[in-house]
Design brief:
The chain is of the alpha/beta class. The protein has a domain of 101 residues: D-Maltodextrin-Binding Protein, domain 2. Helix content is 41%, strand content 16%. The protein is built from 14 helices and 13 strands. Helix 3 crosses helix 9 and helix 3 packs antiparallel against helix 13. This is Amino acid ABC transporter substrate-binding protein.
Length: 338
């Protein structure tokens, strides 16, 4: 009986392993030759530039997956998705990957048939007000009218914060960013709430006089933002997850798009594994051993992506804050490629 159970258990494990590597999405993406990603159309995260090309930290995430799979970061197509449409688009197969400043939560991982891959931007929800309003704290906004996007964790966090602090507010539910900021400037809304990075990016591009506005100091929530994929294809999930991790690891080990060829000569075993000098890591993911080399060469490491999308080399010039490496005072921490 024990031998039979052992045999049955082994067979069961083989079945599970086979299912885990079935690769429905992985195989479909490979067959069609490009990665279809869902974007938000927000400066810093994902926006079309003057040349009609997608740029932003979420775009780089999608491009990096394409570089890992095809050896070509340009094998990407993007859909602009609203907050209300983004999950349906992923569930239906309209997109292969949601790379759209999406907060990862327990409910979203357990009720939608989707799963978060990892965090590529740590954020917090804040509230934007006109400086002349004189508010120094969100608690000064008792009875205020606040613009917020419907169907988001932002809407729920706002209600939780005001209820928890026993103050009242009147929500104005508007999906479109431009309409939110039009209502804000017209005085129809006293304040606007969203993720702080999102708000900072939008106020610079959508408000006529951004210096007349400020984001109040409180954090209404934690907002771990990152890509999502459909459940049921661990091979695709792993490729996206390890694409993110290798970009962070590359920054920690000082591997950049400019020095990656020179780093092929490194004697550091970690660098050798990342760049495929020591073989095997790519095979385990179902791609070429140069997968990480291609990501870094064509897209860059996490720090490079942040700097040109949101940081010092971008018009936004947002401080990295929590998104610094853990070795530099932040909490961005890549998992070992080994």
């Amino acid at each position: 009986m024990r031998k039979f159970l052992s045999t049955a258990l082994a067979a069961g494990l083989l079945c599970v392993a086979g299912a885990a590597h079935a690769g429905t999405t992985f195989d479909a993406v490979k067959k069609k030759g490009f990665v279809q990603c869902g974007f938000a159309g927000i400066p810093g995260f994902s926006v079309l530039d003057s040349k009609g090309e997608w740029t932003g930290i979420d775009v780089d995430m999608c491009r990096a997956v394409a570089a890992a799979m095809f050896g070509d970061a340009s094998k990407v197509k993007g859909n602009v998705l609203t907050a209300q449409a983004k999950f349906t688009a992923l569930q239906s197969g309209e997109i292969d990957m949601l790379s759209r400043n999406t907060t990862l939560t327990l409910t979203r991982d357990t009720t939608l048939g989707l799963i978060g891959v990892g965090v590529n931007f740590y954020d917090a929800q804040g509230v934007l007000v006109r400086k002349s309003l004189g508010a120094k704290s969100v608690k000064d906004l008792d009875g205020a009218t606040i613009c917020v996007q419907p169907g988001t964790t932002t809407e729920l966090n706002l209600a939780d914060y005001f209820r928890g602090n026993k103050i009242s507010f009147k929500p104005v539910l508007v999906e479109n960013y431009d309409e939110n900021f039009r209502l804000l400037e017209s005085g129809r809304c006293d304040a606007y709430t969203n993720d702080k990075s999102n708000t900072a990016a939008n106020m610079r591009t959508r408000l006529a006089k951004p210096d007349e506005w400020e984001i109040l100091p409180e954090n209404l929530s934690k907002e771990p933002l990152g890509p999502m994929v459909r459940q049921g294809d661990e091979q695709w999930f792993n490729l996206v997850r390890w694409t993110l991790n290798v970009m962070i690891e590359a920054e920690e080990y000082g591997i950049t798009s400019k020095n990656v060829d020179e780093m092929l000569k490194s004697s550091n075993p970690n660098v050798q594994r990342i760049l495929g000098v020591t073989p095997g890591m790519g095979k385990n993911l179902g791609v070429d051993d140069k997968w990480a080399y291609n990501i870094i060469k064509q897209v860059g490491n996490y720090g490079e992506s942040y700097d040109h999308a949101m940081g010092k080399d971008s018009p936004l010039k947002l401080d990295r804050g929590l998104n610094r490496l853990w070795t530099q005072g932040g909490i961005m921490y890549g998992w070992p490629v080994r």
